[in-house]
Amino acid sequence: MTTTVRGGARPEEDPEEREGPKDPQAPKDPQGPSKGDQDPSKGDTGSAGPGRAAASPEGPPGDDAFDKDVLPTPKGASRRLLGSLLRPHRRRVTGAAVLLLVQQAAVQAGPLLVAYAIDSALPALRGERDYGPLIAVAVGYLVCAVASGGFQHAFILAAARINQRVLLELRGRIYRHAQALDVDFHDRYTSGRLISRSTTDVEALRELLDEGLQELLAVILSVVYILVTLVWLDPGLGGAALLSFVPLALLVRNFRRRSLRVYRGKSTAIAAVIVKFAETMNGIRPVQSFRRERANDTAFEQLNGRHLKANGDAILEMARYVVLSRLVANTAVAAIVVWGAYRVASGGLALGVLAAAALYLRRLYDPIDRLGMFLNSWQSAAASLEKIAGLLARRPAVPEPERPRELPPRDPGLPGREVVFERVRFAYRTGGEVLPEFSLTLPAGQTVAVVGATGAGKSTLAKLLARFYDPSPSSPTSSEQGRPQPSSPTSSEQGRPQPSSPTSSEQGRPQPSSPTSSEQGRPQGGTVRLDGVDLRELDVSALRRGVVMVTQEAFLFSGTVAENIALGRPDAGREEIEQAAKSIGAHDFIAGLPDGYDTDVRKRGGRISAGQRQLVSFARALLADPSVLILDEATSSLDIPGERAVQRAMETVLRGRTAVVIAHRLSTVAVADRVLVMDGGRIVEDGPPDRLIAGTGRFAELHSAWRDSLT
Predict the structure, then answer these.
(1) Are 442 and 418 in contact (CB under 8 A)?
(2) Rounded Cα distance, 584 and 613, in Å
(3) What are the ABC transmembrane type-1 domain coordinates in residue numbering (predicted)?
(4) Rounded to whole angstroms, what are the CA distances from 419 to 578, 629, 677?
(5) Which of 55, 435, 614, 656 is deepest in the core (most CB within 10 A)?
(6) Across residues 534-557, what is the average pLDDT?
(7) Alpha carbon of 334 to those of 240, 244, 290, 340, 537: distances in Å?
(8) Rounded distance, CA 437 to CA 690, Å?
């Protein structure tokens, strides 16, 4: 076994216990939230400088994009997203467009029939008593009305099918992408915002697709039809109508620019309301225990007030546009009709043409209000689509390898797999360096307990092994020159066994290989290897099969006990599930539940106790049969009987595999072959528990204090 720890600044706390979200891959900021009293998601408010954190990709320190709910969105991402959603439905979209085209042609034929009736059908009736032209006009008008209704009905059905398929695909994309994003992202981007993206923002897009696009297409087609017809009827009237669109175009442009800003704020405001609501309901027990109802009411009212103001701003923008557009439209209609009447009186224009032009002008400007409604929906949907596109544009900080490798076959003579940390360091963007550079080897089959004070870096070490995070890039050589060098072993460490050459059982195991060509260009900053394979090159499914982490929370999903045990192996049969539970010692309490293994444990496993949830999680891990098992504070929240039951289960689940046990309670260390004592991100002691207890180092002090606490 080997441990090498290199110099480096000691962090103040472990990010597992630090309040607030975290972001990896950042240099240390000594003025940042190192004491756990500042939310690191908000970044450093100071200016960059010597010893200060560099600006994050999302924005400068103090301007955190996550905190403001404004994830960077690549240029044109919203348009590309909408195009990718509609592309599979091109034929249906084309068919719907044809239906609307024909429907608008039927609608716009009415004024032409009126003009024909005035200028031709009525004179024929009055002069020759010929009813034929007037009857033809009436029949034609009826046919156009029926055709318009029929084609509109067909268009609505076709558009609805397209819209629902698009929204179904979009919600699925958001859900799948959110699951694929790394743990660091979810630490910083709250679940309430994800809920807002997949509900409120998708709903805004639904309103646009259901109503807005139909209105837009109808407005565009009617304007084109009417202007062409007006020019055909009389070029002068058509030209005057066309000129009146100049002030309207300026109004539309101004409305779009102002309303987009308003709707961005509205989307952010409703997301903040949902985040607060979800946070309060998830923490309802401490809220009621500490009488936080009034304080939460006040905070919620403030957030709700911001949402109210954002809605009010949107309504005011819409009202301003409608009033001004109607003023322009009515003025234009009045001016053109007066001019047309003068031409009729002077004999330069037929009365039927003026009547048709008046009808067309009213139809030309009536859609302006509908255009305003569309722009209202469009700007709301554009702001929502921008946020969704920003979310979908996020790439995982822990990416899957381009050419994944498989783990080598397990040596049947060796339990578990060898784990090697080689020149690994880790730092959060806003919290400074957590783990200074170190190297560590965990032989196959060894159970290693990691102990230390809160904030020592224990959970971070485990998350690197589970590849929830990747190691941070190595510090520049120049910065290493000023680091304190490793000191000689203390008196308590001198009795520790020194690194030895590989045993005969280890010599046949694959050794860490040199970096491949694809690795050499990567700023690696150290590697974590499993049987010689860099975790960054390992196929993700193989990694999750080979390394399983059991957390302190022992999260259970809504569903039956059997479904929760089979989470890691969904194809497992009932006999295998029950055998895993029996091996752990969970069968008796499961059998005593109302429906046994088919009992629904409900949300977060709330129907059973914390100790029972932990036993179910152990049965889940045993059934998954990983090569490496990580237990993160598995007994810290249990009472004494629950802890003893879990410890008995631990002996079963740890047998025959490499294990890392993060321990707050030293009673857990009894199952370990080796103990690592961490302090300030460094491994300060390493050895068998009995030898460390017999010494005078930190573990001996911790053990003595723990033993005294039992008396």
Answers:
(1) yes
(2) 12
(3) 95-380
(4) 31, 11, 18
(5) 614
(6) 84
(7) 12, 12, 68, 10, 73
(8) 28
